[in-house]
Amino acid sequence: MSAATMAAPRPRAVADEGRIGVRANLRHIGALVRRNALQIRQDPESMFDAVLMPIIFILLFTYVFGGAIAGKGHQQDYVQHLVPGMMAMMGMNIAMAVGTGVNEDFRKGVMDRFRTMPIARSSVLIAKIVVEIGRMLVATAILLAMGFLLGLEIRGSMLAFLASIVLSTVFGAALMWIFILLGLAMKTPQAVQGVAMLVLMPLQFGSSIFTPTTTMPGWLKGFTEVNPLSNLADAARALINGQGAVAHPTLVTLGWAVAITAVTMPLAVAKFRKKT
Fold first, then answer.
1. Measuring CA to CA, which residue among 12, 269, 217 is closest to residue 116?
2. Long-range contacts of 27-35 (CB under 8 A, 24+ apart)
3. Which of 11, 51, 194, 249 could in theory staple to 234 by disulfide, Cβ–Cβ 3.0 to 4.6 A?
4. Angle between helices 75-108 and 189-205 (to 10 degrees)
């Protein structure tokens, strides 16, 4: 081995997060958010789920199940129950799309290019979260607009109404880390979607989103009480309708959001760093 070879420096890691300052990290996140937003602009079909899903679901449940649950001619009462609950559902469905998107980006080699750049690994995933929060807010706005057309009333204060949107957004953002981790762990987008549906279906329908829990059997009612979607739906419902317990379901929802983020965010970043 020659002296020149022995003296050659060892290659450094392209992105050492410990050496990237906060300002640089924020700048990287901003650039990646802009990149992801421009990608949506070039592919407007990627917004179909955020735009059409709330319209289809609210019309379907209001006119198919509303009469049976609230009684014929009382669909407006069902809208008051349904729309706050569906705010919880919007976050979960948008979060599922994040996982499939991350998996697809890896299959196309997009993430590999990001990992060769001198940027923090977490900035790639955080930028993804920021853009998806924007999509979630679009879906929530359309859901509420449809709700108002169908007779939804804000019976609480405007501040409480805005708090319900913020609470749904915070919990939805926490769920995104679960699905990002799932997208990094699964081999194909189809596998991500399949596993996600196995999680989504019992959580959504085994909750207070669509129907009151009073008529459910005891074992299912017990599940709905610990289901985080039920707590989020109950909190949003109490804030919008101006009645019912607010503090307990709100604190439970925030507790779930903090716990989910604290566990899954570092795992997702570590998996992103090591994924081949």
1. 12
2. 28/119, 28/120, 28/123, 28/127, 29/123, 29/126, 29/127, 29/130, 32/114, 32/119, 32/123, 32/124, 32/127, 32/128, 33/127, 33/130, 33/131, 35/127
3. 249
4. 160
Amino acid at position 165, single letter? I
Nearest CA among 136, 183, 184, 162 for reference residue 239: 162
Burial (CB < 10 A; 0-12, 13-18, 19+), residue 245, is exposed
Cα-based distances in Å from 80 to 106, 214, 230, 242: 42, 17, 15, 11
Q: Is 73 helix (H, G, I), strand (E, B) or coil?
A: coil
Q: Alpha-carbon torsion 156, 241, 201, 56, what sign? A: negative
- The whole-number average pLDDT for the span 33-55 is 83
What is the rounded distance in angstroms from the CA atom of residue 8 to the CA atom of residue 151? Answer: 72
Residue type, 276: T
> Which of 3, 11, 217, 197 is closest to 99 using CA atoms?
197
The model's pTM is: 0.83
- For 106-157, the pLDDT digits (tens) are 777 777 677 677 777 778 888 889 998 999 999 999 999 999 999 899 998 9
What is the model's pLDDT at position 13?
Answer: 42
- C-alpha distance from residue 270 to each of 33, 63, 107, 171, 257 (Å): 21, 46, 18, 22, 20
- Of 68, 79, 77, the C-alpha closest to 150 is 79
pLDDT for 20: 66
Q: What is the mean pLDDT of residues 210-239?
A: 88
Give the model confidence (pLDDT) of 189-224 as tens digits. Answer: 888 888 888 888 888 888 888 888 887 888 888 888
